[in-house]
Specification:
The chain is an alpha+beta fold. Helices cover 60% and strands 9% of the residues. The strands form 3 sheets. Strands 1, 2, 3, 4, 5, 6 and 7 form a 7-stranded mixed sheet that branches. Strands 8-9 form a two-stranded antiparallel ribbon. A two-stranded antiparallel ribbon has the order 10-11. It starts with a helix and ends in a 13-residue tail after the last strand. The structure holds flavin-adenine dinucleotide. The site of flavin-adenine dinucleotide (FAD) has 21 residues, from β1, β3, α21 and α22.
Length: 823
Amino acid sequence: MWISGLLISTAVVWALAYRGAGTGVWIAAFAAALAVFTVGSDVAWYIATPAWVLSAIVVFLLGVPSIRRRHVTAPLFRQFRKVMPPISDTEQEAREAGSVWWDAELFTGKPDWHRLLHLPRPHLSQEEQHFLDNETQTLCELLDDWRVTHEDKDLPPEAWQYIKNRGFFGLIIPRDYGGKGFSALAHSEVVMKLASRCITGAVTVMVPNSLGPAKLLLHYGTREQKSHYLPRLARGEEIPCFALTGPDAGSDAGAIPDRGEVCYGEWRGERVLGVCLNWEKRYITLGPVCTLLGLAFRLYDPQHLLGEAEELGITLALVPRDTPGVTIGDRHVTLDIPFQNGPNEGRDVFVPMSQLVGGPEYIGQGWRMLVECLAEGRGISLPALSVGAGKMASRYTGAYAAIRRQFNVPIGRFEGVQEPLARIAALTYQMDAARTLTLGALDIGESPSVISAIVKYHLTEKYRQCINDAMDIQGGSGICLGPANLIGRAYQAIPIAITVEGANILTRSMIIFGQGAVRCHPWVLKEFQAAQDPDRARGLEDFDHAVFGHIGFVFGNVARSLFLGLTRGRLSGKPVKGPTTRYFQQLQWMSAAFALCADVAMMTLGGSLKRKERLSARLGDVLSELYLTSAVLKRYEDTGQAESDLPLVRWACENSLYHIQESLRLLFRNLPFRPLAWLLRLVIFPTGAPYTETNDHVDRDAAQVILRPGDARDRLTRGIFVSDDIRFRQAQIESAFVQAARVAPIEKTMREAKRAGILRGSNFEQQVQEAVAEGVITVTDAAELERMQRLRREVVMVDSFARYGKQSVLSAARPTKPAIYAV
Ligand SMILES: Cc1cc2nc3c(=O)[nH]c(=O)nc-3n(C[C@H](O)[C@H](O)[C@H](O)COP(=O)(O)OP(=O)(O)OC[C@H]3O[C@@H](n4cnc5c(N)ncnc54)[C@H](O)[C@@H]3O)c2cc1C
């Protein structure tokens, strides 16, 4: 009786917590249980009476809002205000920037998959597609990467002109101002395509379209500023840059020492109120060639020309390059990716108030303006560049592995090579899925700052992984730079992508979970806001609502994690039916686990979680993998559940689930409050840790996608630079790749004939002659094999130079005599 009562009570408590029952339901359930306990059993009065009295007190304390607030919430509220971590203004502004979206769903522990699956798939307009197929293709053809990176150390003049004339600097500027008014998707596709051909060109185009004067003016500019500058920027008559970073302010950009003082001065022959600026900046992209500087500085008003306050805060201004006192023009050498980048400084540079972005109204709001614009831009440029590199590696390194032969077989047939090939292909699929999902959000007006930090960090890291793998597969052909090498420069450019727009270590350790925990959690921001409310009574009321909501939320996630852990997610909902059903269910489980761990970490560590960066990073990793896997599943649905994509979907999901599990295990191992860590492990993984690294057959299947021509390969690499013109290396590789697939059965026949002793010749030519003579292959087959030999030769050859130094001259790129291969 006792045991069944206990089991039933546990089941009811579990079910109520799982469903997130409200206070009223809990009280009713509790009263019913007590009634059953006292009336339905022969329990003695001296036990039943205190139980009822105690319960009545608890119900009275928790169930009557005014009593609860005074006796339970108020002490909690005081304690919370005391331990609440101090938040600087810049941090506060960063936290408030942008919006929340699917990241908030993941924080609930029970994401609404239907919401994700019903999001419209972003698509290009006819005009955007036309621009990609024509202007962008032409620009790619103008950008000879070797000439840019090795010979000119700059884009060729005709490419600069084409960029300006064809509106590449005005992709985000609305048509009313003479720009293209493109969607985030189109902007990303342009950068991605350019990056697959010439990263220098991609960076040159992406900067004016991401954080810079145009974006700032669009959001905050005065009517005059917009109508003066936006058409000039769209037409390329102004080249913009944005100068925030300096020697003393890198990651901690809010610490800029650059100074502006409000004063009167001369501007175009008139004495006007303005700002006298002094600054020292470095690493500024397009700085050396810019005509218009967007400048961030701290504004002071020592003469009180504007009012009482002396320190006015971070402010942004537009400074024409030719303003007296501006020094500009030197260049940094950025790992031989020669986009224009360099330092600049200003000494007593005077600009009028009308040059402040947004005018005097926006004085002191610079930091918020920057982080808001960054929240958006971070989701577009570098993810596009990274996916461009991943797609290029998938298409051309995959092809190389099918063409290049060692030990008489294509190297792509070796399991050791298939492992990195699988990573390249599946990570590219995952990156592209995350890119398009994020762009879809941006194009429906969201500005998800946590998600844009996730894609910035993870896509640049996956770019690093893909290109490192590609370098290993390409061997010497990846290392020897020259016109024939497609990936060497992508390898050199990795640290640039990693460092800019929020260096990756910082983004992982501080931003993703740090910002996510406050912005996306259903209750934490409400608790913070209530605690900061200057109206104490209203604050207490809001806090009461938030804190009890939060407690219910934690119980719900404990119940969900344990239930999903025991069933390994099997009994959770099935938003789709098919081969990906289990992945949805497992993500449901991991999402509940994440929500619970996030709360436990925040509750036990409070403000010190900010300093425990590695714990924060691991929680951020879990959140990120949940997002990336959601994107993969969404893409699979959006592309009509294409069966040929399944190997990539499988690899990406299994890899992410394994990483989620490992991040959680490392979190458990490092949480300072040990008993809680053990309990967490027990609740989340009650039957042990189920995930492992991907199996060999999963790797093999994923690798096959890029080792043969096919629709999955074409879908995976869609949108990068390809050409049929044999002058381009891309076309040479493609042609050899197609031929390799064509002759594969003939080569197999030849191998079998050799094993059977029919072919005894010591080299390729002899063996082909024998095979034709013996009727093993036809004359046409022999011609195909010979063509393959020629094409293969072209692809495996690397460049060499007569001199290597000051006057490097390309002399003999390729020997003319074909080598002799045995089959
Ligand atoms: C090629 C290039 C182009 C750029 N273009 C521009 C531009 O156009 N305009 C502009 O204003 N700036 C630009 N930048 C500057 C860029 O945004 C900064 O480089 C970046 O903010 C990092 O600053 P830093 O290089 O001084 O590194 P530091 O701030 O010195 O950081 C060094 C390392 O410490 C890590 N780190 C720092 N603080 C923390 C922390 N709290 N927790 C964990 N890790 C931490 C960082 O992640 C990094 O790995 C550019 C930089 C480069 C390299």
